[in-house]
Amino acid sequence: MKDSKNLIGGLIAGTAMGIAIGMLLAPASGESTRKRIVDGSVKLKDDLLTTVDDSMENLKKQFNTRAEMLAKGGKEIINQANEKTKL
Question: Which of 32, 80, 84, 87 is disulfide-compatible with 28, CB 3.0–4.6 A?
């Protein structure tokens, strides 16, 4: 979990730095560069939101799967205990 957060954070930071450096080094007017920076920022924000949403969905699925496994295990333990008390 911690590794995936570090990976996502590193990818986002690397992308942002790459976009900023590329725009600053590209030969363009100030107005054009500012527009490209704004457009790049909006795209980065959208990509980030998509990544976060996907990660949250994945975490929800993992949580639900594990919760179901625990509930099933608990029911099995209760059933075993009931069988032993009937003897």
Answer: 32
**Does 66 score more than 90 pLDDT?**
yes
Residue-level pLDDT at 6: 74
* End-to-end Cα, the chain, rounded Å: 45
Q: Of how many residues is the chain composed?
A: 87
pLDDT digits (tens, 9 = 90+) for 23-58: 677 676 777 777 887 888 888 888 888 888 888 888
Alpha carbon distance 76, 72 (integer Å): 6
The HSE-up count of residue 84 (CA atoms within 13 Å, CB side) is 6
Phi and psi at 41, nearest 5°, equal -65, -40
Contact 67, 54 (CB under 8 A): no
